[in-house]
Structures are given as C-alpha cells and as structure tokens.
C-alpha cells in the first residue's frame, strides 16, 4: 500500500518551504495543497485546529503541525539522507540552533519589519546583528551549518537570506542589516545555499515574494 503524504502550505511561507526542502532531500513523493490564509479551508482547520496555520504535513491521514516538529518527524520516518546528525551531542546542538532561529531571530525580524518608531527599529536591527554573530561564529570553517551537507539548521535558516536580508526591499529601511564585511561567513553560506538545487527548486520567485511580504507588512502596520 502506497504511503499518502500531503503538505498543506502557502507559496510565500518560508516555513512551508522548509518542509518542501526536507521532503525533496528525502525523495519522498507528496501532494502539495496550496492554502489561502485569508480564507482558511475546512481541511486546514481540521488538520491544524490548534494553530490554524501552515505548514501541516498529513501522513497516512495523520496530521503534524509546526515546521520544526515536522522536520524531525520527516527525518525519523524516512531515515535515508538524514537532515539531523547521528551523534547525540551534534543532534542536540542542531535542535538548539534551529530553535534559536525561531525563538530569537524570527521575533526580532518581525519587530524590525513592523516597528513604526525609528529609534525602536534601530534598536531591533542592532539586536538582530548581535544575534546573528552567534550564527556567524557557528558557520566558521563549515560549508553548511550541518557540515558538508544541508541539514536541519540550514533548512530552518532559509529565513535569513530570503527574508531578513531582503528587508531593505520589503520595508524600505535603507539599511544593510547583514553587511558582508561584518558577516563574511553568512554571506559565503548564502551563496552556497543559493546554488543548491533543492533550495533553488523550493524558494519562491524573488520579485513576487518581496511584493507579497511588502504588502503584508504594510497591512500589519496600518492596522496597528
């Protein structure tokens, strides 16, 4: 009996793109179901009644929500082409840095994007730079966060080049948050990441993506 694998996602959501990447790395066939987050489908509400958001992985009728949880589930369910290290310590550290991105960098990025007060926004930008110094150090001497191959942290960190580093276009702040001379390791990693086939296949087109995020930020700001 063939496995049923479905991904409920949204084209502009980099959290959804994380799951696309993992399934492609594993070579798992799946059905992609695009979701309209302004008019949530009965299927999405059924499969993720708690958070009511994407991504949601549906495997043989059972749903799994939250992107980092889904990534671990994928890695444990299809053990070939692992995205988590086999060594227990390295595995724990990969989980640590993935959570660091979602719990520290993402909220700070959102603060930069929607903050109207210039002084508060500058403080958030500086905070983001301080946080990114940890990742700069973690990348030293590595091709990817996972070493020689794309891993969990790299997948989680696609938010950096395809969101955080596009803020000038998205919110018009006129500031290079991650200048190459200050973050050479991150820029080297971004170049290598952008040349990876699975990333190129999964990342939404730049112009359309920036336009969507800019409109989203403008709506949030006007509602505050």
From TrEMBL:
Compartments where located: Cytoplasm, Cytosol
Main location: cytoplasm
Assigned GO CC terms: cytosol
Reaction(s) catalysed (UniProt annotation): RX + glutathione = an S-substituted glutathione + a halide anion + H(+)
GO biological process: glutathione metabolic process; toxin catabolic process
Keywords: Cytoplasm, Detoxification, Transferase
One Pfam assignment: GST_C
Limits of the GST N-terminal domain: 3-82
GO molecular function per UniProt: glutathione transferase activity
EC number: 2.5.1.18
Alphabetical list of InterPro entries matching this protein: Glutathione-S-Trfase_C-like, Glutathione-S-Trfase_C_sf, Glutathione_S-Trfase, Glutathione_S-Trfase_N, GST_C, GST_C_Tau, Omega/Tau-like, Thioredoxin-like_sf
Domain spans labelled GST C-terminal: 87-213
Family: Belongs to the GST superfamily. Tau family.
PANTHER family: GLUTATHIONE S-TRANSFERASE U7 (PTHR11260:SF536), GLUTATHIONE S-TRANSFERASE, GST, SUPERFAMILY, GST DOMAIN CONTAINING (PTHR11260)
Protein name: glutathione transferase
Gene that specifies this protein: GST16
């Amino acid at each position: 009996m063939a496995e049923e694998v479905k991904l409920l996602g949204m084209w502009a959501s980099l959290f959804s793109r994380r799951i696309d990447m993992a399934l492609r790395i594993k070579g798992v066939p799946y059905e992609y179901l695009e979701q309209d987050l302004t008019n949530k489908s009965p299927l999405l509400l059924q499969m993720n009644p708690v958070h009511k958001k994407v991504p949601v992985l549906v495997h043989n009728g059972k749903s799994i929500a939250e992107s980092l949880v889904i990534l671990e589930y994928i890695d444990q369910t299809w053990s070939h082409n692992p995205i988590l290290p086999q060594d227990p310590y390295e595995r724990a550290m990969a989980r640590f840095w993935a959570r660091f991105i979602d719990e520290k960098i993402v909220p700070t990025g959102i603060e930069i994007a929607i903050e109207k007060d210039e002084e508060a926004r500058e403080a958030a930008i500086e905070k983001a730079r301080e946080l990114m110094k940890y990742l700069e150090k973690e990348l030293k001497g590595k091709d990817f966060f996972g070493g020689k191959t794309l891993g969990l942290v790299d997948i989680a960190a696609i938010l950096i080049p395809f969101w955080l580093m596009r803020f000038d276009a998205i919110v018009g702040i006129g500031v290079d948050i991650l200048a190459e001379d200050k973050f050479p390791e991150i820029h080297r990693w971004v170049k290598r990441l952008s040349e990876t086939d699975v990333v190129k296949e999964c990342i939404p087109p730049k112009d359309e993506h920036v336009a969507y995020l800019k409109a989203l930020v403008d709506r949030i700001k006007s509602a505050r």
